Amino acid sequence: MIDFLGLAKVVGDVVDEVYTSDEERLEASNELAKANNLHKLESKKLDIELQKSEDIAVTTRWQSDSVAGVISRTARPLTLHAMSFLLFVMVFGAMMNFIVPESYVVLVQTLVMTVYVAYFGSRGIEKAQSIKKGSDNRSAV
């Protein structure tokens, strides 16, 4: 059986020794590192822009929900209260030796974490944005 990886390395080393100086190899390595760093930087910028656009979309949707009607306005708080009540029941039940299947524990844990992060995280972002807008308006005066 032929070891193609080993063969490619040997051939590459021979070609490097014959046709490439240490300076050229170092320069090529630096160019590759530079291109890799630029790619990582662009990828991070795109990730940040995507996250910002998602945050703006969620905030806009929730703002439009808050002016739409009673049901739309109360959906998030009711969900938060329902998840809190479910968590309370499970914790209280565990203290009373009520056996809760592990699959339910994982499900409720995921749901509660999602609701809490979405509710309190979004409220924090909205509050920070309103404070920033308020400080921008004050500096413009």
Supply the number of helical segments: 4
How does the overall form come out from the CA principal axes?
Answer: elongated
Number of spatially distinct domains: 2
Q: Count the strands? A: 0
User: How confident is the prediction overall: mean pLDDT?
Assistant: 76
Query: Which structural class should the secondary elements be placed in?
Result: mainly alpha
Low-confidence stretches: none
**For the CA atoms, what is the radius of gyration?**
28 Å
Distance between the termini: 79 Å
Proportion of residues in β-strands: under 5%
Helix content: over 70%
Biggest sheet features? none
How do the helices and strands follow one another from N- to C-terminus?
HHHH
Short recap of the structure:
Helix content is 91%, strand content 0%.
Walk me through what this model shows.
- The chain folds into 2 domains: 1-68; 69-141, no CATH class.
- It is elongated, with a radius of gyration of 28 Å.
- It has helices spanning 4-19, 22-68, 70-95, 102-140.
- Helix 2 (22-68) crosses helix 3 and helix 3 packs across helix 4 (102-140).
- The longest helix is centred in the first third of the chain and has 47 residues, at 22-68.
- It is mainly alpha-helical and 141 residues long.
- The mean pLDDT is 76.
- The protein is built from 4 helices and no strands.
- The relative contact order is 0.05.
